[in-house]
Amino acid sequence: MPRFGLLPTTRLPSLQSKQALARAIPLPHKPTVIPPSTAPLPDEDESLRDRLRRRRRTEWKRRQRGQTFLDNLIVSVHGGSGGDGCVAFHREKFVPNGPPSGGNGGRGGDVYIMPTPHLTTLSGIAKRIRGPTGGNGQGTWQNGKNAEPLVIHVPLGTVVREIPRGDSRRSPDEWEAEQESLEGLDSTERVQKMRDNRWVHYPRFGETNLSRDSFKDAEQALYAQERERRYLRRQREKDYKPLVLSMLPLGARHREPLGFLIASGGTGGLGNPHFMSQNDRIPRFATRGHPGERITLALELKILADVGFVGMPNAGKSTLLRALTGGRAKSEVASYAFTTLNPVVGIVRVADDGTFEGSLKSDQVYDETIVEEMQEQERIERGELAHALTRNQSGQHGHHFDAEETFRFTIADNPGLISDSSENVGLGHSFLRSMERSLALAYIVDLSGPAPWDELLVLRAELEKYQHGMSRKARIVIANKADLLGGEGDAEAIALAKSKLRRLELFVQEHMIPIGEDGRRLEVVPVSAKYSQNLTRVVGLMRGHVQEARDRLGERTVKELVVDVDQSQLITN
Ligand SMILES: Nc1nc2c(ncn2[C@@H]2O[C@H](COP(=O)(O)OP(=O)(O)OP(=O)(O)O)[C@@H](O)[C@H]2O)c(=O)[nH]1
Ligand SMILES: [Mg+2]
């Protein structure tokens, strides 16, 4: 017996509040196996404090008026310098003049860039990034330690470009930096400084070394190597292509666990045994570590989601994203406005028969994040998760769907748009820039609100104010929270709900711009994101629109949008 007449399936708990819901959903319980925990459950105060904390963060973000959504950043990256080689001689009882025994320096840390799904903005990335320095060599042939690599985590959809020579935003590379540091010095001082940068001498032997032939030969060889390295590096710069870190959400596996190498660390210096020769049995010099590669990158966050959600705050965009991705996309859900502060991208995986990953768990309720966290905490307290299998182990999710999946598209859940967002009210609209290239947009409105049709007008106006013609990308109107209509299932309430939906449909037919030349109107789909109802229809429609847009764009443009990462190695070592 349906509780309301708009949606096909029902069986909803009758709920007045989130606390009631937490009690209403029976959780499997094993009291005989695990004794009840004495740890206190999260109480009302705690949840209130948490809620306040989250709200304060939102308020702060609002005061920034969208400026903290950083989608362009120039970063100067230095690979770590190599460690210095060591000048030492072996000392042992009864061996008065032991052989040279200085160890080599360790390699400097390489710097990698890695697309990471849970990041949504570039604002956490430092503008100057330096890999760790390698360890210095030590006596008794002890080589210095190689430094750990450093990984820069960036959001998916980040485009990485090297800033070319001649651009004022570019920082000097390792050779240019040295030249700058020598400016204003006379020629003797320059030579002296360059030697200091390259050589380590045995104490009090600096002067003597300079006059020895073995040192002069070694110095010449070192400069020749440097020239060759610089030549190869400059050659390689010509082949740099932008690296688009966006293929990965579409399921590509990481080739390298650390991401993509962007700046190699410098090699370590050589210890004094390396310079032993016929002419010099006791070399009293060693080389310093080489500086790491320096590169200036322009990072641009271009979220290349196929479908972008456009809706007012609290319409349920984040809940819908979570329901469509089977809970994989972690977008925060709460009952206050502007919960989502940055766009979040999720992947919808669809099988041939129209089922999608999110529809595998039919009775799943996607509630507010805080409620879900409380429920999870309760389960942990009861010890239920102690032996729980992971999602992949239990086969409910993930690889299990791989065989059935025939189509996938990405969705971007955006912050709420309100009237005058274009005047930078609310969170502003800077995030829309990341959606300009979405293939389609979906309006999300709250069907339980007093006038969902007015929401549509505001949303369309804001899109148009941002970019003329942008609202033409809208393909579908999702009328969410349909479960709140229909009262207790009485005929009168159902009739009312139906007439409200009908009114919304009529409004869309009369006032919203038709899609394409054939005059097709936006389709209105009533859903309940929270209880995953009627979502198969939404997925079916979105799939059609994405497919259509991809076909229309043609092969060439799609390739431009999604550059194959394999072909665009930024560094070709
Ligand atoms: N009853 C019901 N409540 C829903 C549904 N979808 C979302 N909600 C609730 O609506 C509130 C807002 O949901 P969100 O998903 O955070 O909304 P949003 O559009 O992402 O909001 P912002 O991020 O602030 O723009 C939460 O309290 C949700 O639990 C639904 O289908 N039915
Ligand atoms: Mg949200």
Structural class label: alpha/beta
Radius of gyration: 31 Å
Average predicted local confidence, pLDDT: 78
Q: Quaternary state, please? A: single chain
In total, the number of domains comes to 2
Please work out how many helical segments DSSP would assign: 13
If strands are numbered along the chain, what order do they take across the biggest sheet?
A: 12-13-11-14-15-16
CATH architecture of the largest domain: 3-Layer(aba) Sandwich
Shape: elongated
Which strand-content bin applies to the residues? 15-25%
In the CATH hierarchy, what is the superfamily of the largest domain? P-loop containing nucleotide triphosphate hydrolases
Annotated CATH topology of the largest domain: Rossmann fold
* Bound compounds: guanosine-5'-triphosphate, magnesium ion
Low-confidence stretches: 1-42, 246-255, 555-573
Which percent range fits the helix content? 25-40%
CATH class of the largest domain: Alpha Beta
Total E-strand runs: 16
Query: Sheet with the most strands?
Result: 6 strands, mixed
Describe this structure in words.
- This protein has 573 residues and is an alpha/beta fold.
- It has two domains: 72-301, GTP1/OBG domain (Spo0b-associated Gtp-binding Protein, Chain: A), CATH 2.70.210; 304-567, Rossmann fold.
- Helix content is 30%, strand content 15%.
- The chain contains 13 helices and 16 strands.
- The protein has a six-stranded mixed beta sheet with strand order 12-13-11-14-15-16, with helices on both faces. Strands 3-1-10-5-7 form a five-stranded mixed beta sheet, with no helix packed on it.
- Mean pLDDT is 78; it is low at 1-42, 246-255 and 555-573.
- Guanosine-5'-triphosphate (GTP) is lined by residues 311, 313-319, 333-335, 337-340, 367-368, 415-416, 480-481, 483-484, 528-530.
